[in-house]
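[Q] Does anyone have a clean structure-token version of this?
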Amino acid sequence: MQTRAPKVVGRDREIDHLHGLLAATRGGQGGAVFLVGEPGIGKSRLAGVGTTRALDDGMATLRGRVGAIGTMVAFRPFTEALLSLIRRGEMPAADGLGPYRQVLGRLVPDWDDGTAHNTATSAVVLGEAVLRLLALVGKDRGCLLVLEDLHGSDPETLAVIEYLLDNLEDQPIALVATLRSETCAAFELARLSAQRGAAHLIELQPLDREQVGELAAGCLEVSPDGVPDSLVDRLWRDSAGIPFIVEELLQEASRSGQLLSKADGSVQVVDGLQTNVPAAVVRSISSRTDQLGPQSRDLLVLAAVIGHRFPLSVVRKATGTDERLLLATLRAGLAAQLVGPDEPVPDWYAFRHPLTADALLAGLTPTERSTLARRCADAIEELHPGLPGEWCQMVAELAETGGDMARAGRLFATAGRRSFDEGSMASAVKLLERATALLAGDPDTAYRAEVLGSLLIALSETGQFENSTVHAATIEEMADRNLDSRKVAALHVQLANLEHMAGRWSAALTQVATARSLLGVDACDADLAPVDAIAAHLELARPSPGRLKAATELATRAAEAAERAKLPAVACDALQLLGILSREHDLDRSIDYFHRARLVAEEHNMTFQRVCSHIFQAGTICLAGGSIVELERARQQALRIGAIPLAYEVDGILGQQAILRAEYDKAAVIIDECLEVTRRLRLGRSATYFLSTKAILEAHRGRRTAMEETLAEAANWGGERASYELPYSYGLARTFCALLEENRELADSEMAQALAYDAQNPTTLHTSGKYGLGLLLGVLSGRNSWAHFEAITAAAASGMRWNKQFVQLAHAVLLGRDGQVDAANNKVVEALETASLYPLARHLGLRLIAEPAHADGWGEPVAWLRQAEDYFHNAEIQAVASACRSLLRQLGVTVSQRRSGIEQVPAHLRQLGITSREYEVCRLLVDRIGNKSIASRLHISPRTVEKHVASLMTKTQQPDREALSSFARTVLQD
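[A] Here you go.
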């Protein structure tokens, strides 16, 4: 008789689905399937069928399993799967992963240079890294990833799986996952993924009577007709159609002599089959363990207390068993199909099925189980001092089973803090919540306060804001039990941070006020620094004209107090905030703040904060002088530590700089890549920034429709509606687009709107116009005089290189207006040097100042207009090029006609005989404006416009001007 059926029975449809998935994956169209069912239903065996088929077809295969001992280390199944690649020598070269190689140091020890666990890498970023690695593994052949027992998985593992599910469609990757059909986060993920079409969910059903008979025939090595109906009936009834139990019942019946082989190849049942379920499984396993002897049975029972997987060294230590007996027990257990080696990890063994361990535990009383759990916990602590890695959670679970709640609570707290430090935030929350619950009655309120403080920080990081009132009540309960008022205040600060992250600013301010009242007037620096730091962030977050000033005062106090009290994390946070806030008024001071933050982070080994500070500092350097060298260095640092979101933040700045430098193709590549990745990584705030930057790109190319569509998408993400985005999009996108359309009235209106938004709620993005282009437009229109100029130039932001070019041009216009010709000319020379990095802005500036220069008798307006006309003609921005030609003619200069503009006219309109000038008029008719407005924009006479309109009506066969405008709106809008 065989211990297992030679083939999988009753799963033909499921096997066909797996084979179809694998075939599609080999063709580059990946997918996922969840195999769901109760224990023993055959999930793992079905996954094994898929693995065998994948190997036969030459696909790469990986397998990982969630640990069965309580809460395990985050990402364990992925680590196990990737390690199997290394053992087989199939791991691809890491060079193909780019910046994601360092991220995978969390999973692949050989790729960790010691910094992988120092960087808070989100599960989605890790998911992208895993996706790219699996795509490399499966290139040209396909890859199968099998993840088993997900019902016990940690939140981070599920987050990575969810990310993979959403991105498998165009990848050569198949994912097969198994889990029990019980209420858990993994089952909810499977259900929702199936609903949205990201995966298939196959719920395995029990075998019917005929299939049970076929399974029994396979195990008994006879034909289905050779299995007595009475045996099939009993097996089907007692097993409930669960294949594992059918096999166990047959094993027991065979060992007990209840089944005999007949000469005709059939099977005879002797004296009926006496079993009950689940007692049948217990009896089957008990009968086999009894044959091993009492000592060996006790060893396996103790191993079952540890879990479905168990380390041999702990069993040896907890029982004091000698090596010979232990090895003999293992050999016997292997022979009896009870246990087997847990292949990925040396020294670890596993029961053949979870029901095996459960059956062994069924014979223990609660007292016996508690005693054995405490013995195992003590053994682990002796073998592994300090309880590194997963040992801490294991001992915590055993301590809880053993009834030692205080010990369990403290160990769960330690494990939770470690998970937080490693970036496994969701696991940290689960562990710290267990610790908080277990320690609820603990008399040491000071320790409880520390644990709750850690939990509040973790909740803030993971966005779990629902139970703030419960935590507030816990704080009050500990205060009533005479917890030191300073510790109570510290908890209110952490709760304020949670409310701030949740966007509940009123509640956050209430918590800050409570903390201040508890601390009183004599509070020390160590207590006040965190209060002022969170208060500074709250000020910056709430809309108010004075928010920047108030935030600066609070951040200054926080930084000074934190440095005196030696609170490096608070000091670094406050210094970074000060660096951002001081950019407007003192660029050197801003750089110094970020430099100080870097030094603090380096001194205290705060890797992530060090790189953040470097990026902030490099950003200020770029704003000041236009150099991107330091930004590129900071980006490389971010990549080296695996801080992918930070690297993309830098890419956003580099993309914007490429736009300002008129390197539009380069900018488009950077921004499109950033948008693709941030959308996949669900970095919402970053995505809105990149969309706003893309809108600036479209605006600087003169593409209004594309700009508006992009800004609409940003608004859907919540981006442009955010107060800090509005001055940015109005000043750098909308205003520029209007200027490139030669619509000065609209440009002035858009800039006025940008300045109004900034006045209502001052932005920290200082290149949007207030300190540069807005000043120049105001001077050109006569709104801004010397007084306004002096007020603007008193701020350091006016010295940022992008702003400075416009400030210098405004200065030149004011000087020229006052008759200071030489000074005005010199200032233009300075402006052109400043603008040398920014070709479009440089030539637009020349076009803008040419008119006042001619009117006031200074400068070289003809030369400037020729330069601008040539630039904008070659840049295919015909409105500005045309305006420059018209202005030159008005100045009495002979201008050769640019015939090349005809290529701007769509082919179907060229066939109607429409000229490039008529096309320009037609485009403006979209807005249904009058001849005078069109003439003003094109710098031609209203009479000429009237002639062009009449010609257009004839060529397009439109009966009147209204019909022509409708025609233009229909066929000419971008």
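[Q] Thanks! Anything notable?
[A] The longest strand covers residues 173-180.
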